[in-house]
Amino acid sequence: MQKKIYVLDASAIIGGYYSKSNANFTTGEVILEIKDLKSSLLLQSAIEDGLIIVEEPENEDIAKTNKIIEESGDILRLSEVDQNLIALALKLKRKGNNPVVVTDDYSMQNTLKTINMAYRTVLTEGIKEIYNWVKICKGCKKKYPSDYSFEDCEICGSPVFKKRIKIKK
Ligand SMILES: [Zn+2]
Predict the structure, then answer these.
(1) Model pLDDT for residues 20-37, shown as the tens digit of each residue
(2) For residue 24, how far is its CA from the centre of ligand 1 (angstroms)?
(3) Residue 158 Cα to ligand 1 middle (Å)
(4) pTM of the predicted model, to two decimals?
(5) pLDDT class for 126, splitting at 50, 70, 90?
(6) What is the whole-number distance in angstroms between the Cα of residue 64 and the centre of ligand 1?
(7) Which of 9, 31, 61, 79 is surrounded by the fewest CB atoms within 10 Å?
(8) C-alpha distances in angstroms, 104 versus 49, 60, 144?
């Protein structure tokens, strides 16, 4: 059976839609598009934890993508980053995976439909795992919101530490 994997565009990453049970892939260019601090901190730790794997498409996949979108006219609407992400999905499929591209971009979805590549949107129901941060007291385990600005617990005075938690959508 082919392994189901997710290919994430910037909207997926900003939405925090990484699957924990399946591998998530994206390109270095997509990562450069993530500018807001909170998303890029989460992304950094997802990469460090091996949740998101950064991989680049190969020339043959880029050439194949270009040919398809020239024919469909989507070449005018897709950024180079988008094109290369589609090429990455083609590469991963060629290597025997079953990629699902996560994107809210209509032109992307249109192209993916054309090439019979599975996709899902970020904003509709999809991968129901979202990561968030909390702060937890080492002593009494009281939970604080991620923006709690003190280093000590207001109850027992023990240090608080940051922890990533999975929340259901
Ligand atoms: Zn405490």
Answers:
(1) 889 999 999 999 999 888
(2) 36
(3) 5
(4) 0.71
(5) very low
(6) 57
(7) 79
(8) 25, 26, 32
